[in-house]
Design brief:
The chain has helices at about 40-50, 70-75, 95-105, 110-120, 135-150, 165-180, 195-200, 220-225, 230-239, and strands spanning about 1-15, 15-25, 30-35, 55-60, 80, 155-160, 185-190, 205-210, 210-215. The protein has 2 domains: about 1-80 and about 155-239, Rossmann fold, CATH 3.40.50; about 85-150, no CATH class. It has a 6-stranded mixed beta sheet, with helices on both faces. Helix 3 runs parallel beside helix 5. The chain is globular, with a radius of gyration of 18 Å. A hairpin with a 2-residue loop joins strand 1 (about 1-15) and strand 2. The protein has about 240 residues and is of the alpha/beta class. The structure holds adenosine-5'-triphosphate (ATP). Adenosine-5'-triphosphate binds near residues 18, 41, 83 and 192.
Length: about 240
């Protein structure tokens, strides 16, 4: 049973087809990489899967729920890191995680344990009482990471989550994502950093100009001795 499924999903802005009839399935336990050049429709796909925008046509299901009809239900179930989103400027890092924890119905000692775990794991406990407006971009991204996974969602949809992190943090986050998926959860990750996708994703899809060019398993490419970036370039240039 796929945990994410789209059928000929499309989003148009005037004459522009941001996403153009994409059908895909993501199985439970996958670390699924949605890859594509700038403007290929990755963020639009994530927005439709999380009910932030409605498709122009076609449909989607996330954990058996249609995000266009029951967006709030989908957002209760999943974790989300939107692209270039930052936490509220007027809250401290600690306040923001408590705020998210309450929405996620995590309370009392569990709240403290879970948020402390993230502050320690991503090594930013010293920033707990700093207002988010005064945090560096990388630290804000750590916070966005923590908020998405605080309630240990079965499915997380994360848009370019590693872009502002230094190499040490990138490694930690990559390990976390691999373990998280290996323990039966599903991650839908959008990125244009192909090395990251090749290293951690179990499956991938390539979008170009809103169209799905390919879906496959990263292991199959490795077995053939093909690098993802060569495969990607050839496919995108050919289309
Ligand atoms: N609200 C909107 N109104 C009009 N056009 C939009 C809107 N949102 C996205 N687009 C257009 O849709 C196309 C796909 O955009 P999208 O942000 O989904 O791409 P992306 O693959 O996430 O790109 P990037 O890697 O640069 O973040 C782009 O041409 C973009 O300009």
């Amino acid at each position: 049973m796929p945990v994410i499924k789209t059928e000929k999903i499309a989003k148009e802005y005037g004459d522009l087809k941001a996403v153009d009839g994409v059908s895909l399935e993501v199985e439970k336990g996958s670390l699924f990489g949605l890859l594509g050049p700038n403007g290929s429709g990755k963020t639009t796909m994530i927005r439709m899967l999380t009910g932030q925008i409605k498709p122009s046509s076609g449909s989607a299901e996330v954990l058996g729920t249609d995000p266009a009809k029951e967006g709030i239900k989908v957002r209760e179930l999943v974790g989300i890191i939107p692209e270039q989103e930052t936490p509220p400027s007027f809250l401290t890092a600690g306040e923001y995680l408590s705020f998210v924890a309450k929405i996620r119905k995590i309370e009392g000692t569990e709240l403290e344990e879970k948020s402390d775990w993230w502050f320690d794991y991503l090594d930013f406990a010293d920033k707990k009482d700093v207002l988010c407006k005064d945090l560096s971009r990388g630290t804000r991204q750590k916070l966005m990471f923590a908020q998405a996974f605080l309630h240990e969602p079965e499915v997380a949809l994360i848009d370019e989550p590693l872009i502002n992190l230094d190499p040490v943090m990138q490694r930690k986050v990559k390990e976390f994502l691999k373990d998280y998926a290996a323990s039966g959860n599903t991650i839908f990750l959008s990125t244009h950093i192909l090395e990251i996708a090749e290293e951690i994703c179990t499956e991938f899809a390539i979008l170009h100009k809103g169209k799905l060019l390919h879906t496959g398993k990263t292991d199959e490419l490795k077995e053939k001795g093909v690098h993802l970036d060569d495969f990607f370039m050839e496919l995108v240039e050919r289309s």
